[in-house]
Every structure is written in structure tokens, then in C-alpha cells.
Design brief:
The complex is a heterodimer of chains A (about 800) and B (about 625).
Chain A lengths: L6 H6 L5 H7 L41 E3 H4 L4 H4 L9 E3 L6 H14 L19 H12 L3 E5 H7 L1 H9 L1 H19 L10 E5 L18 E25 L5 E5 L20 E3 L5 E11 L13 E7 L11 E12 L9 E2 L1 E13 L19 H12 L3 H8 L8 H12 L4 E3 L5 E3 L5 E5 L5 H11 L3 E5 L5 H4 L1 E5 L6 E5 L1 H4 L4 E5 L6 H12 L2 E6 L2 E6 L4 E4 L21 H5 L3 E5 L5 H16 L2 H7 L3 H14 L3 E2 L1 H19 L8 H17 L4 E2 L1 H19 L18 H21 L4 E3 H11 L6 H13 L3 E4 L2 E4 L2
Parallel strand pairs in A: 3-4, 9-12, 15-22, 15-23, 16-19, 19-22, 24-25
Antiparallel strand pairs in A: 1-2, 5-6, 5-7, 5-8, 5-10, 8-9, 10-12, 13-14, 17-18, 20-21, 26-28, 27-28
Helix pairs in contact in A: 5-9, 7-8, 8-9, 11-12, 12-22, 21-22, 21-23, 22-23, 24-26
Chain B lengths: L14 H9 L6 H14 L3 H4 L16 E11 L3 E10 L6 E5 L5 E2 L11 E12 L5 H9 L15 H9 L15 H5 L2 H18 L16 E5 L11 E9 L2 H12 L13 H7 L8 E9 L16 H25 L4 H11 L5 E3 L2 E3 L4 E4 L7 H12 L3 E5 L2 H6 L5 E3 L4 E3 L9 E6 L10 H16 L1 E5 L4 E5 L2 E6 L10 E4 L9 H6 L9 H15 L6 H17 L6 H17 L7 H24 L5
Parallel strand pairs in B: 6-8, 11-18, 11-19, 12-15, 15-18
Antiparallel strand pairs in B: 1-5, 1-7, 2-3, 2-5, 5-6, 7-8, 9-10, 13-14, 16-17
Helix pairs in contact in B: 10-11, 10-16, 18-19
Classes of the chains: A alpha/beta (about 800), B alpha/beta (about 625).
Catalytic activity (chain A): ATP + H2O = ADP + phosphate + H(+)
InterPro entries (chain A): MCM, MCM_4, MCM_CS, MCM_dom, MCM_lid, MCM_N, MCM_OB, NA-bd_OB-fold
GO molecular function (chain A): ATP binding; hydrolase activity; single-stranded DNA binding; single-stranded DNA helicase activity
């Protein structure tokens, strides 16, 4: 394939006799200009009144004449050998494409191709058992949008040879497709009116690759690459046809732009005055063009390198289709233009500028609006990888293995790691929108709290590094807008733009919030909606919107003041609203166990962490990348459903949990806990790559839930699990004060001791009168409750009754 | 094939080898031969030093198309570019065709036959390299010292390409052989051509530098920056690598002219014009006189930039290693005395300062960097610009360092984190983009009252992340990208630092506060090139690179110790303390030249940790408001 010619050559040596090169070269390298008209790919011929429209994305196709293979190019015979030998041997110069055969093949494809298993959005509402593209033609006739998007994967499965030609010679094959489709369309719908002729836009060329793997061999081929838009230029009007008018007689002439150059008429054809033709700008034809810069998506990049960028040109209606920040797949023709030679210089820069003329944009993140995020995680696994992952999933101890592979540098805390592991897998997505409850949250939220120096931050950092879309933020510095989104004026465009915060950015990832307790209440309240409904509403500057986000959270409050072991009652330092607490599926306390055996193991772990060779450590644990892939695979392909036994087990578990507290008027479980159990069991089934949630999954979920509760919500006096304890958090001094008040109250009651029943309000006032320091109503309630726990009295409504 | 290179005589006419090859039509394999040849030549003794270095020799003294070396730091990576690897030219007069080679060159000959089917396209990658940031004067100077100024040959820029070819294809016709070592001054001063270059080049450089930002990571840096073109295996290069690059210098003025032309012409019809903004053009095609191009032939990643140590990995240099190891303990004692003197008589602080200076992130366990040892030197006197003195003393000893006064203005206005500028399509550098083992000196005594703005908060967060995780999140506008780093951070402050640190030591001057100023003015600092200072430099450099291990026995006793300590008072020793003690023990052993931990070192590590902790406790009691 010859390189695209540059206008520079002509500039540089206009007198260079090009036919000499033709003689000495083994095959014609330069085309005599008069072959032009024999080009089979003529645009501009209106079909039944519908004007054709130039396709600047394809470049100057008209320059390709047909050559007869038999006479000139015996070399390429082999490639066309498969075609009927009796037919025409005419191919487009430089390629092995025969226009007529190509047309026929494509028409056959459109009329016959059926894809019964199609799941694409675009095909929604089409009959999958009818020829797909015929239906799309009908759609065009109704809607009048003359664009036909063709999935290359379909084309390949239908006719691999045609696909190969398309990828190798897009510049010639796509116009052929255009002709074919227009013939077909106007045969079927002779009366339809379109703005211009139908244009075929192939996408999803199988050569989908990342930017890094592009190489010089891809030039002039059809490629699909993925990336992120980082910059879009303003609209550039590109002249397609120049309009000249004679300043003497007023006669006009139109000249088409050829490869960026206009051949200005030297003399007026009408009056024969030379140099009289002047360009009239506003009667010339222009087409829209936009430069778009694409950058590699961060996931595709090797570590320690900076992302590559590439220039893309969008033409006509593709202009302004994408915005900076969009993640897109583009299909287009990769081009290289040599540096322009300067007529004053004796040398040229030997570097080509490369760009892509875009044919089709496809946003990869737009689907997320429909709540289907599985496709966004288009992580491609090789056969081997899938096989090894599946093998791993069959191991009986896969759960333990994965849990220990999580943050191996952090010692023990196995249950917490297991909890985090289940969070990474997440539950199954359930849709109850028909019954009016919308989506059920599938994400697991976890709260970690505990003593200082128990590597909570480190665990957060690890998770943040493990998941593809993790966000790490500290409660100390976060404000509500920093978490959600804010509207600001873009300094350049002066338009209002939505700047996204941590929660939005971690959509479909994990949002790690450190030092949760340092967050202001205001900020914390933002989390309510995100954590349960998994949406985010913003109302700012007259902009009201709700963004769907699905963010599991891992939040860790900073250490509660460490206490001595003699006080087993560890509660959170700052009272958090109960409703927020309930939204956490698992609440873990990270404690320093302080016993000798533990210390020894810890010391051993740390020493080996520091001094053992890398290899030794690697053997013990799974690789981080394996873990990553395992999670990604499970999240994408496995969505377990509850089995009958599992449902029964869940019901029992819930009833049991309710029972514990009900005897004493305490609530130990809410429906939310049941939902958590379901999610956790589903996640556990995912770990096993199982499509069914079995009893063992429920057992593990129960165990984990119990462990988490036991650690954080055990009533130290009774040993009972009480959820409300989490919210009545108080410090040691506050508790001491409470006990003092309780004792004072008891004494007072004993001294009075006239009636077994007293008025609540009266008692409070008496106590207040007696006490030196102020007794708040809350404190009084606490004291009463403490006495009730001692079975000294009971409180019913407004009366206090003495027992005994 | 006959390749006539005479490296030691510095007549490197590499490019022309391409011509030989293509003449003989054996386009395959010649590239490997060239590279192999160079590598072999460079292995030879003194060959390295014979190659002129771009770091020391002004650009206008260097011969274009000759082999030069450059000790540099990869600041940014540009997009790969496609070029004509081989192409055909047509002589306008004789119509003769000739194959030309485009490799290791920026410009193609005129009259290129664009339609030739023999054109071979190839790909290469461009890195934007700057001299190693923060390099101490001794490191850059003494590396220059070994290079003889061989390249004071007159520049041949004025010659046409025909001349060039002519001469190089007939090596015997070359001019006077340029002998190794400095040439006699008359020789080249007599050359009018050269004189012109000397007088003109610097002025033009100064003029153009004013509007061109060379994007050095640290403020106030200067030196040549360079576009290094890499032809193979570019994925193995990483951002922020320190390299020694051997390559062919290309300063063709054509490059600048082409760039200028671009800026002035704004024809809408030329598709190449709208592709790049003027800003991008300036960055990616700066004038070659200012930012020369270097076509890489051979490169070597530098483990350190200490000129007093051999470049190669320590193990291969057993002679050097054993001689230094035997002296380690003695040098350490000397250094300790010196630091005690500098730190106002505080031996413990001096001990910790040594440990800090030889610390090095030697491994990462998932997110946890191992071996870092950020020191917070609190209680620094504020008189007599003590912290600045201290910095200059450290700067004298380490190969690269940077002083950051934590003034409100610096924090609010300085760019610490590199940020991608999408308009110019480059990574705008920040002060935290430094090579590994740079000493970052944060001076908190300069803190002042005021409010941090958004940028300031980000900067402080970035510093915190750097200290805790040894990573910097580069700002790519739409996302952040994490780059691991390996920086020794020393924080000097009056009270406890606002930044996290691995270890805090409160300075206890043995000198009464009233006399500190006087003491400081009489502080004895050895001269820059004294043998003592050089010994210190080698000591710090070697200790950092030593391997280290721990035997099972010692592991056992460490475990026992830990359990015992916890038994006495569980509150006093946490896992974090053990982490720190292990690092201290490691650094202590290394500083003594021991590559395994022995019981003594462990006890000593424990001991100094205890001392330090008591001191911190005391300090807490003194200042009630300390957290």
C-alpha cells in the first residue's frame, strides 16, 4: 500500500517529471490525472433526487481508478483467486477489492444476516429472527436518519473475506457499501425522501486495541480503539468545494478541494481573461470538522508510564458528539500525513503526523445510565485465565485463600478481611421496579472502627488500590459537595459544568472514607441516600438531578479513645444517627487483643514481612492481579439466586435474631439486617462461582454478621446483642457520671420509699433539686435504665414502679 | 560490513553507518550491529569518559551528529511518532535513486520520493529529559570533571549535507584528528567558524529561554533539557527514571525553522496545521538550539547519582565493596561526631539523622512501603537560620536534595504535584517529581499564621501521602495516577510536625540558648572537596544500597523481646512500635556495614528507641498542649 500522498511533493518539485518514476518502478506508483473519471466510486450522482453527501472521513476516494488484474497485476492473483474466475477481474488500484463483487456480498449480508442472540441496546425492539439490517433500513425509511451502523463482528461471522477487505481497505470498501446500501434502499423504498444518501458506518472492528499497540502497519486500516476524550476543538469549517467568480464577466466556476488543495482556475473560461477568477467564500461549500484528543484509559496503562494521546478528526454530524471526560470506543481510519515540506528548505522532517478519521463513536459509559454496569466492566479474560480462575474456584478453601490474599501485610483480622472480600464481590442485583420498590441495593457497606494503630488506614489503602474505580477520601477534609458534586462555571466555556465529587467518581467502585467521625453531621447526611438508594440527588443553582451511583462504602471512624481491657464496653466515640448505622451491613471493631500468643504471631509476621525475600512471600499468597481478575470475573458473570433451603435458613436466622432482643423490649434486628444477610450470602456464593445460594453461604453470612455484631454491639452487662448500643455511644467519663446519677437516684428513692410507684416528672424534679450539678433529661433516662437493668424498678410510660 | 568508528578518538560518525548498510542493501540486521558495536565500545576502559557529556559541555561546543552522553531524568513521555525508517531519494538532476536511512535522524534529505514502494515506516518514542533535579553541586561537577573537553572541534552546522556525506563516507579524508584531552586553545580560537558559535549561541539561548518553559521539576534549576528519541524497548523506561543516555546529537537548525514556519502559517486548508496548538508546538518542537534532540543508541539506568561510587550494581564490584565495608564503622563514628557537632551536641539526634539519611524504600508489600524512615526533628532553634545551615550540610553530603520552606506562600502557590496540561499536551512538573533517594528537607520552622487555600490543602495532603505511602498522585485532570517514589523526607519543626512522620526526635541542645547563635557562626564545616566529606558521601551511598537479611535465631529473639515488652506494659509497645524498631535495627546494622542483624544491633536499636521515646514523653509533659 502506498503512503498517502502529500501536497508537499507537488509544492516541492512541481517540475519533477513523474512519469520517469513510473517507468523505472516495478508497478505504477503515480497516477496519471486523467484516470480520475474512470473511478468506480463516484459520489455526487444523485439517486432519485436524493443528493449524495461528501464523506470527508473517507478522504479522496475518487482518486482510485480500477485496474484490470489480468493485464497488470498478476502478483495479486492469488488473493482474488477465490472469486469466480469467469467474472470481472477489475479491482480498485492498490487493493484486491472488486467493486461489483463487494457490492453483491454486502447486499447479501444486509438481506440475510440474522443474529438471534443479539443483546445490544441498538437492536432493542427489533425482531431478532428477521434479517437485522433490513429492519434497520426500514427504520431509516421511517425515521429519515440516513446512517446505517454495521457491527463488524456480524460482518465477520457472515463473510470473513469481506470483513478482511473492509478492515484493510476501508477507504475503498466503505463507499462500495454506501453504493450497495443506497441501491438496495431506493429499490425497496422508492418514494422515501432522505436528506442525503445513506452512509454506512462500521464499528467494533475486531482489531479493537489500545492505543499503545498501534503501529505503522495499521496506517490506512480500519481500527477501533478505546480511550477517554480529553479535549475537543472548536468547529473547523473545512472547504469542500471552492466557488470562483470572474471579476470581469461574472461567470462562475466550482472547483473541488483535492487533498487540501484547490486548483485555482488560471483564466476565465467564459471571457478568457487570465487571473480574473476570485474566490467567493460564502458561496463555497464547507463541511464541519472537529479535532478531538483521545487519551488512553487509565486501566490500559502499564505502571510508571504516562498515557498516550491521539488526535481524532470528527466530521459532519459526528462533530460535538463527545465531550471531554467521555469514555469512548472509536472506529475510524488511521492516517499518517508526512510533514509538509517547506519550499525554502532542502529537507523535510521525517516524521509523520498521525490521526484517526473517525467513522463511528460509541460511548462506553453511556450504558450506565440504564443501570447495567456489567458491560462497562468489559474486561476481557483469556481462555487460560478463565480456566485457572475456575480451577481456583473449585478449591474447597477458596474463600479462606482469597481472604488471606487480601492485604497480606496486615496481620490476622481474618473476619474483617472476609467481610471486605464479600464487599468486593457484592450481592446480586435485584430489580423490583415492577412492584414499585425499585432496585434493591446489591452493594455491601462496611464500617471499621477500633483502636489506634490497628492498620485500618492501611486496609483502606489496600482496597482503594485493588478496585478499578476506588476513591479515597478523608472525613476530616470532606464537605458535602466534595463528596457529591457541585456546579461551577467553566472558566473557558463559561458554561455551568457539574464537577463530580468522590462518591460520584467511585460509581461502581468503592468509596473509602477515612476518619469518618471527623466528618460533620451535615456531610454525613449525604451518605444516607447513597448508601441505601444508591442514588445521589443534587440541587444547586437551579440544577436538580439525581445521579445513579452504586458505591459500596468502607468507612472507618478514627480510633475511639483506647481504654483498658477492664472496660469491655467499647462504643463509638461520637453518637452517629442510628439510621446511618443500620445502613452498614457489617460493623467491625479492630482491636488490639493483647495476649501473648497473639503478640508472638504478630511479631513473627512483622519480622518476616521485613526480612523475608520477595519470592517467599509471593508463594504463600495469591497474587494481587489474580485476586483482581477473580473478583472482576465473578462480578461480571456470576449472579447467584437464592435456593429454597437457603431462603428457609435466612428466615430462621432472622427470626432468631429478632427473638434475642424481643424478650427485653430491645430491638436486635431490623429488616435491613435481613437484607444484609441476603447480600452477604449472595456474595459468598459468588466467591464460589456458584449460581445458587446454598445453605453454607447463609451459614457463613450468619457467622460473619454475628461476629461483626458480637464485636461491636454486645451489651457488656448482659452479654446480649443490642443494636441500639451502637448509637448510645458514650465515653468512660460520661458512663461514670451516669452511674453516679443512678446511685443518687436510688438513694433518693430509698429515702422516700413511700409508694411503689412514682411520677416520672416528679422524680426528675426532685432529683434536680437535690443534685449539685445539672441533670439533663437524657441523663435521668439513662440512670433510670441503669436501675431497670439492675431489676430495681421498671418504667412504664410516665410512671416509675419499684420492684421487689 | 565495514564500520569505521574510532570512539576513543571521538570521531563518531555513526549515522553514516546507515549509508554503508543501505548501500550494500542489507537493511536487515545493521541496527543490531550498530547498537552492539556501541555497547562493546562503551564497555572498554575510559570509553565512557571519552564521550563528551551534554551536562557539562555547552551545547554549542558539541559537534552535531556526534555521540554524546547525557545524565538525565525522564520528566515526561510524549506520544510515539512514526517516521520514515528508510526512504528513497531521487536526485533531481541525474534521476538516480538512492536508499536513505531515517533512523537516528530528525530530518530527511530533500527530494524524497514519497511514492516509493521501498519506504519503510517505523516507530519511535520521545522522552523529555531534564538533568537530574536537585543534584548537589559536587555530584554534577565531579561527574563533569572526568570528561575531557574533546568536542571543542568547530561546529559543522554550516556545512551542507552533501559535504557531510562526502567526508564521512571517506573517513580518511577527515580533518585533523582531535586528540583526547583539551585541545590547544589557539587551535580552535583560530577558527572563525567556532568563534562565531561561541559568541552567538549563548545570547540566542538566553533570549529564547525567556519565553520557553523548560519544565524543570524544581524551581530555580537550569541546565540543558533534551528530547531523547528511543528506538527500541521503550516500555522498559519509566517516568522519573534516572538514566545515562548515549546518543547521537541532533541540533539541525532545520528543526527550528520548520517549527517557526508552523507557527506563522495558518492555512486552513492544510490538515496538519489545525492539529496542534501553538502551545503544544512549542513544547513538542522547541528550537533545537535550546532543546537538542538525542537519538538513543545505548542507555543505562542509574541506581544512584553519586559520582564517587561505581555505576554498576554493588555486587559486581567486590573490591570496592569490601574496602568500603571494612571502613564503614570508622567512617560512621566520624560522621556521628560531625553530626553531633552540627546538631548542637545532641548525639542521639545525630544517630537518628544518620539512620534517616541511609534509609531507602527497598520493597513494597502491597501498599506498604518498607524501609522508609521519615524523621521529624523537632525543637529546632529558630535563631541564626539554623535549619538552612543544616540543609546546606546535608546537601553537601547527599547527591540530590531539595529544600522546601513551609511558608504560607510556598504552600499556597508552589506546584508540588505534577499536573497534565492538555492544551500543551505535557506533564507540567512539580516539586515532588524527583528521582529516587532525593532528600527532601521540609522546614516547618518557617510556618506562619494564615489560611491555606485549596491549593495549599492539596499540597499538604500530597506531602502527607508522600510521607505515609511514598507515592504521589499525579493530576491528570480527569483522573489521578499514582506514581511510587522513594524520597527521604526530613521535617524540621519547633513542636511536633503537622505532617505525619515515622519517627520524631526532639533536639536537646547541649549549648545554652543564649550561645547558640555564637556557636552556629563558629560551626566547623569541612570544605567541599575534602577527603573527609568524600568519605561521608561514599558511606551514605553504599549503606543505602547494601543487602540485608535476618537469621532465624535473631527472629526468634526479636519475637521473644516483643512478647516480653508487651507483657510488662501492653500500652507502651504497639505493632507500630515494632515496625519502627525493625526499621531502626535494619538501618543501624547497615550503617555499621553489617548485612545481617545481630543481637547487639537489635539491643542497641531497642536502646536508642527507648531513649528517644522517653525524650518525646518528657517533651509532652513540658508542652501540655501537645497531643
Amino acid at each position: 500500500m502506498a503512503m498517502p500522498t502529500s501536497p508537499g511533493t507537488d509544492l516541492l518539485s512541481p517540475a519533477a517529471p513523474q512519469d520517469t518514476s513510473l517507468l523505472s518502478s516495478p508497478r505504477p506508483s503515480v497516477l496519471p490525472p486523467d484516470v480520475d473519471m474512470s473511478s468506480p466510486l463516484m459520489y455526487g450522482t444523485p439517486i432519485r433526487g436524493t443528493p449524495a453527501r461528501q464523506r470527508p472521513d473517507l478522504g479522496s476516494v475518487r482518486k482510485a481508478p480500477q485496474v484490470d488484474l489480468q493485464s497488470e497485476q498478476p502478483v495479486s492473483d492469488a488473493t482474488v483467486g477465490s472469486e469466480p474466475s469467469g467474472g470481472q477481474r477489475l479491482v480498485i488500484w492498490g487493493t484486491d477489492v472488486n467493486v461489483n463483487i463487494c457490492k453483491e456480498k454486502f447486499q447479501r449480508f444486509v438481506q440475510r444476516f440474522v443474529d438471534p442472540t443479539s443483546t445490544e441496546d441498538e437492536n432493542a425492539g427489533l425482531d431478532l429472527n428477521e434479517p437485522l439490517y433490513s429492519q434497520k433500513l426500514e427504520e431509516i425509511s421511517v425515521v429519515g436518519d440516513p446512517v446505517l451502523n454495521v457491527n463488524c463482528r456480524h460482518l465477520q461471522s457472515f463473510d470473513a473475506e469481506l470483513y478482511r477487505q473492509l478492515v484493510s481497505y476501508p477507504q475503498e470498501v466503505i463507499p462500495t457499501f454506501d453504493m450497495a446500501i443506497n441501491d438496495l434502499f431506493f429499490d425497496r423504498f422508492p418514494d422515501s425522501f432522505l436528506e442525503y444518501q445513506i452512509q454506512v458506518r462500521p464499528y467494533n472492528a475486531l482489531k479493537t486495541r489500545n492505543m499503545r499497540s498501534l503501529n505503522p502497519e495499521d496506517i490506512d486500516q480500519l481500527i477501533t480503539i478505546s480511550g477517554m476524550v480529553i479535549r475537543t476543538s472548536q468547529l473547523i469549517p473545512e472547504m469542500q468545494e471552492a466557488f470562483f467568480q470572474c471579476s470581469i464577466c461574472g461567470a462562475s466556476a466550482r472547483v473541488e478541494v483535492d487533498r487540501g488543495r484547490i486548483a485555482e482556475p488560471a483564466a476565465c473560461r467564459h471571457c478568457n481573461v487570465s487571473h480574473s477568477m476570485a474566490l467567493i467564500h460564502n458561496r463555497s461549500l464547507f463541511s464541519d470538522k472537529q479535532m478531538v484528543k483521545i487519551q488512553e484509559s487509565p486501566e490500559d496503562m502499564p505502571a510508571g508510564q504516562t498515557p498516550h494521546t491521539i488526535v481524532v478528526y470528527a466530521h459532519n454530524d459526528l462533530v460535538d458528539k463527545v465531550q471531554p471526560g467521555d469514555r469512548i470506543n472509536i472506529t475510524g481510519i488511521y492516517r499518517a500525513v508526512p510533514m509538509r515540506a517547506n519550499p525554502l528548505q532542502s529537507s523535510v522532517k521525517s516524521v509523520y503526523k498521525t490521526h484517526i478519521d473517525v467513522i463511528h463513536f460509541r460511548k462506553t459509559d453511556e450504558k450506565r445510565l440504564h443501570g447495567l454496569d456489567e458491560d462497562a466492566e468489559q474486561k476481557l479474560f483469556t481462555e487460560d485465565r478463565v480456566q485457572s480462575l475456575k480451577e481456583l474456584s473449585l478449591k474447597p478453601d477458596v474463600y479462606e485463600r482469597l481472604a488471606s490474599a487480601l492485604a497480606p501485610s496486615i496481620y490476622e483480622h481474618e473476619d474483617i478481611k472476609k467481610g471486605i472480600l464479600l464487599q468486593l464481590f457484592g450481592g446480586s442485583r435485584k430489580d423490583f421496579s415492577q412492584t414499585g420498590r425499585g432496585h434493591f441495593r446489591a452493594e455491601v457497606n462496611i464500617l471499621l472502627c477500633g483502636d489506634p494503630g490497628t492498620s485500618k488506614s492501611q486496609l483502606l489503602q489496600y482496597v482503594y488500590n485493588l478496585v478499578p474505580r476506588g476513591q479515597y477520601t478523608s472525613g476530616k477534609g470532606s464537605s458535602a459537595v466534595g463528596l457529591t458534586a457541585y456546579v461551577m462555571k467553566d472558566p473557558e466555556t463559561r458554561q455551568l459544568v457539574l464537577q463530580t465529587g468522590a462518591l460520584v467518581l467511585s460509581d461502581n467502585g468503592i468509596c473509602c472514607i477515612d476518619e469518618f467521625d471527623k466528618m460533620s453531621d451535615n456531610t454525613r447526611s449525604v451518605l444516607h441516600e447513597v448508601m441505601e438508594q444508591q442514588t445521589l440527588s443534587i440541587a444547586k443553582q437551579h440544577v436538580i438531578l439525581a445521579l445513579p451511583v452504586s458505591v459500596p462504602h468502607r468507612v472507618r471512624p478514627s480510633p475511639c479513645p483506647s481504654r483498658t481491657v477492664s472496660v469491655p464496653h467499647r462504643v463509638l466515640p461520637s453518637p452517629c444517627p442510628l439510621c446511618l448505622f443500620l445502613r452498614f451491613d457489617l460493623i467491625f471493631l479492630m482491636l488490639d487483643p493483647q495476649d501473648e500468643a497473639y503478640d508472638r504471631r504478630l511479631a513473627h509476621h512483622l519480622v518476616s514481612l521485613y526480612y523475608h525475600g520477595e519470592e517467599q512471600m509471593e508463594e504463600e499468597f495469591l497474587d494481587m492481579s489474580v485476586l483482581k481478575d477473580y473478583i472482576a470475573y465473578a462480578r461480571t458473570y456470576i449472579s447467584p439466586r437464592l435456593s429454597e433451603e437457603a431462603s428457609q435458613a435466612l428466615i430462621e436466622a432472622y427470626v432468631d435474631m429478632r427473638k434475642i432482643g424481643s424478650g427485653r423490649g430491645m430491638v436486635s434486628a431490623y429488616p435491613r439486617q435481613l437484607e444484609s444477610l441476603i447480600r452477604l450470602s449472595e456474595a459468598h456464593a459468588k466467591v464460589r462461582f456458584s449460581e445458587r445460594v446454598e445453605t453454607i453461604d447463609v451459614e457463613e453470612a450468619k457467622r460473619l454478621h454475628r461476629e461483626a455484631l458480637k464485636q461491636s454491639a454486645t451489651d457488656p452487662r448482659t452479654g446480649f446483642v443490642d443494636i441500639s448500643i451502637l448509637t448510645t455511644g458514650m465515653s468512660a467519663t460520661a458512663r461514670k457520671r451516669k452511674e453516679e446519677v443512678a446511685q443518687a437516684l436510688k438513694k433518693m428513692i430509698q429515702t422516700k420509699a413511700r409508694t411503689p410507684a412514682m411520677k416520672y416528672q416528679q422524680l426528675l424534679e426532685e432529683l434536680r433539686a437535690q443534685s449539685e450539678t445539672a441533670v439533663t433529661k437524657e441523663l435521668f433516662d439513662e440512670a433510670l435504665r441503669a436501675l431497670a437493668d439492675e431489676d430495681y424498678l421498671t418504667v412504664t410510660g410516665k410512671t416509675v414502679r419499684l420492684l421487689a | 560490513n565495514f564500520i569505521s568508528f574510532d570512539l576513543t578518538n571521538n570521531r563518531c560518525v555513526v549515522i553514516k553507518s546507515c549509508f554503508y548498510m543501505s548501500h550494500n542493501n542489507s537493511t536487515s540486521g545493521w541496527e543490531e550491529k550498530v547498537v552492539k558495536f556501541f555497547k562493546e565500545q562503551l564497555k572498554e576502559k575510559d570509553a565512557r569518559t571519552a564521550v563528551p557529556s551534554l551536562n557539562d559541555v555547552p551545547l554549542h561546543y558539541l559537534k552535531p551528529n556526534s555521540l554524546v552522553k547525557f545524565r538525565c531524568f525522564i520528566q515526561d513521555m510524549f506520544d510515539p511518532e512514526f517516521y520514515m525508517g528508510a526512504y528513497e531519494t531521487v536526485d533531481p538532476s541525474s534521476k538516480a535513486k538512492m536508499m536513505q536511512c531515517g533512523k537516528y535522524k530528525d530530518v530527511a534529505e530533500c527530494s524524497v520520493d514519497f511514492h516509493s514502494s521501498n519506504t519503510v515506516n517505523a516507530e519511535r518514542q520521545t522522552f523529555y529529559c531534564v538533568p537530574v533535579p536537585g543534584e548537589s553541586p559536587y555530584a554534577s561537577e565531579s561527574q563533569g570533571r572526568v570528561v575531557p573537553s574533546t568536542s571543542y572541534a568547530p561546529s559543522r552546522q554550516k556545512r551542507s549535507y552533501e559535504d557531510d556525506d562526502d567526508m564521512d563516507t571517506h573517513p580518511q579524508k577527515q580533518r585533523e584528528p582531535n586528540s583526547v584531552g583539551p585541545q590547544s586553545p589557539d587551535n580552535h580560537h583560530g577558527n572563525a567558524d567556532c568563534k562565531r558559535q561561541e559568541t552567538e549561541a549563548p545570547s540566542s539561548q538566553a533570549a529564547s529561554a525567556s519565553h520557553l518553559d523548560l519544565n524543570f521539576p524544581l524551581p530555580g534549576e537550569k541546565g540543558p533539557s533534551c528530547l531523547v528519541k528511543v528506538y527500541e524497548d521503550w516500555d522498559s523506561f519509566k517516568l522519573n527514571d534516572m538514566l545515562e543516555v548515549y546518543g547521537i546529537l541532533s541540533v539541525s537548525p532545520v528543526l527550528s525553522v520548520l517549527a517557526d514556519e508552523k507557527e506563522t502559517s495558518s492555512s486552513l486548508l492544510d490538515p496538519t496545521d489545525s492539529m496542534e496548538t501553538a502551545a503544544e508546538q512549542r513544547v513538542h518542537c522547541p528550537p533545537a538550539s535550546l532543546v537538542p534532540r538525542l537519538h538513543l543508541v545505548h542507555s543505562q539506568r542509574l541506581l544512584h547519582n553519586n559520582p564517587l561510587m561505581p555505576l554498576t550494581v554493588m555486587e559486581q564490584n567486590t573490591a570496592f565493596l569490601s574496602s568500603t565495608l571494612s571502613e564503614m564503622a570508622a567512617v560512621r563514628a566520624e560522621l556521628l561526631t560531625y553530626f553531633t557537632h552540627v546538631l548542637l551536641g545532641d548525639t542521639l539526634a545525630a544517630e537518628y539523622l544518620i539512620l534517616h539519611l541511609i534509609s531507602n524504600v527497598y520493597n513494597r508489600r502491597d501498599v506498604l512501603p518498607l524501609g522508609k524512615f521519615t524523621l521529624n526533628l523537632s525543637g529546632c532553634p529558630t535563631v541564626g537560620s539554623y535549619t538552612e545551615r543544616l540543609y546546606h550540610i546535608i546537601q553537601q553530603l547527599v547527591p540530590s536534595s531539595f529544600y522546601l520552606g513551609m511558608t504560607l506562600q510556598n504552600l499556597n502557590q508552589m506546584r508540588l504535584v505534577p499536573k497534565k496540561d492538555y492544551v500543551a499536551n505535557r506533564l507540567v512538573s512539580g516539586a515532588l517529581q524527583v528521582p529516587k533517594n532525593t532528600s527532601l528537607f521540609l522546614d516547618e520552622t518557617r510556618l506562619e499564621q494564615g489560611q491555606l487555600d485549596t491549593a495549599g490543602v492539596h499540597n499538604v495532603t500530597a506531602l502527607g501521602n508522600l510521607i505515609s505511602w511514598q507515592k504521589v498522585d499525579y493530576d491528570f485532570n480527569f483522573h489521578q495516577m499514582e506514581f511510587p517514589c522513594n524520597v527521604n523526607v526530613l521535617v524540621t519543626s519547633e513542636g511536633r510536625s503537622l505532617l505525619p512522620s515515622d519517627c520524631q526526635i526532639h533536639l536537646q541542645p547541649q549549648i545554652p540558648p543564649s550561645q547558640i547563635e555564637e556557636y552556629l557562626s563558629s560551626l566547623h564545616v569541612p570544605s567541599d572537596s575534602s577527603s573527609q566529606v568524600n568519605k561521608f558521601r561514599i558511606f551514605l551511598g553504599v549503606a543505602r544500597l547494601l543487602d540485608y537479611s535476618i537469621s532465624d535465631e535473631v527472629t526468634k529473639s526479636v519475637e521473644d523481646d516483643f512478647v516480653d515488652m508487651r507483657k510488662d506494659d501492653p500500652q507502651s509497645v504497639s505493632a507500630e512500635d515494632l515496625h519502627r524498631m525493625l526499621v531502626v535495627a535494619r538501618l543501624l546494622s547497615l550503617s555499621l556495614g553489617q548485612t545481617t542483624l545481630c543481637r547487639d544491633s537489635w539491643m542497641r536499636a531497642k536502646h536508642i528507641e527507648m531513649q528517644r521515646k522517653t525524650r518525646v514523653e518528657q517533651q509532652k509533659c513540658v508542652n501540655g498542649n501537645e497531643p
